[in-house]
Amino acid sequence: MPKVPDSDIESLKLKYENLAPHLTERTLRLWCASEAKSYGYMGVTALHKATGVSRPRIYSGLNELEQKTDRLNPSRIRKPGGGRKAITQTIPNILTALKELICSTSRGDPMSNLLWTCKSSPKLQLELEQQYNYKISQPKVCHLLKDMGYSLQSNNKRLEGSDHPDRNEQFEYINKQCDDFLSKNCPVISVDTKKKENIGNYKNNGKEYSEKGKPLDVNGHDFPNKELGKVAPYGVYDIGKNKGWVNVGISSDTAQFAVNSIRVWWHNMGKQYYPDTKEIMITADCGGSNGNRVKLWKVELQKLANELGVSIHVCHFPPGTSKWNKIEHRMFSYISKNWRGRPLISREVVVNLISNTTTRKGLKIKAVLDSNDYEKGIKVTDKQINNINLVRHDFHGEWNYSINR
Q1: Is residue 218 domain-resident?
Q2: Residues 133 and 251 in one domain
Q3: SS3 category, 147
Q4: Helix-strand-coil percent breakdown of the chain, rounded to 5?
Q5: Model confidence pTM above 0.90
Q6: Per-residue model confidence as pLDDT tens digits over 182-235
Q7: Which residues fall within 8 angstroms of residue 393, CB to CB, at 6 or more apart?
Q8: Which domain holds residue 34?
Q9: What is the CA 329 to chain-centroid distance, rounded?
Q10: What is the helix (H) or strand (E) element at residue 153, kind and residue range?
Q11: Are residues 397 and 328 in the same domain?
């Protein structure tokens, strides 16, 4: 039986590799049919072996060449109605069933298993088989979801909880207070504690350029190192001067720690810019170590006011609006960018990375390590409360108040 030489097979294979990217389904089968016809009886086998195109497809091309079938319109590549039927035609209710599964959590259907599982394409494919007895592949589920306008979405941190009716008025009040103090060349500082960080060879979010294929190896788990512990960076951001101070604590994040951080800022940075000031304004969140309901926070501020001989005015942002505090997006965000992708292997590394954070608009930050041990759970006595020279403002005195010396 005659056989097509191996050299011809290789030649056909090379032709196919060069032409295939430029041929349509129709021109490809016609080219295969034309080459097969030139080799006679063994041509179809030779083309199938060289190109991988199926024999029925090559025979279909031969029939077209010999006009045994109706010639196609030049604008078409196959007969009308050719190809596999769309799954929406073979299973008419497939889209309805898929929508019901996707919306089961928002609908609150207690009978749906997907209430308690992720809505991934493999899970949806399994539920379509189990609940509706539909035979469908996981990739086809993905295609249907895309056609329906669905895509993979992550959670979006946008909801702030219930809004206080005077929320906007408090923002306006804080803004007016800041403008008044800045116009008098008095310091206006934004304060907060940055997220606590594990010290050690742990993964730090973000990416940094390094040689391809050689990422920095870090620990496979994030269990805190008992010897190295954690650090709590407390920040003080001077809104008027665009300068920052960070007190890196190694103990508990308490009101004593918060106020001492402000004290350290004043002695190392604040009094250089405001040597004659008699007032300091602080903007802070409603929670944490500097929360408006923390009694020890006010007791410690009274000590600081007496020590520095100044009046301290405090304005708290309404609950759930901490990200509007300027320190968050004017200082903390740049610190996170500066140490992205770098393991915080020691306290010294944390201090140095913070101290070397700058921006094109002139932000400069200084950082120090606070090795003091701050006790948690300190009880404030009625006598200490009565000794606070606190004056509440007329507008929301629980958020806005002054502590005089």
Answers
A1: no
A2: no
A3: helix
A4: 45, 15, 45
A5: no
A6: 999 999 999 999 999 999 998 888 887 677 778 888 888 888 888 889 999 999
A7: 400, 401, 402
A8: 6-65
A9: 15
A10: none
A11: yes
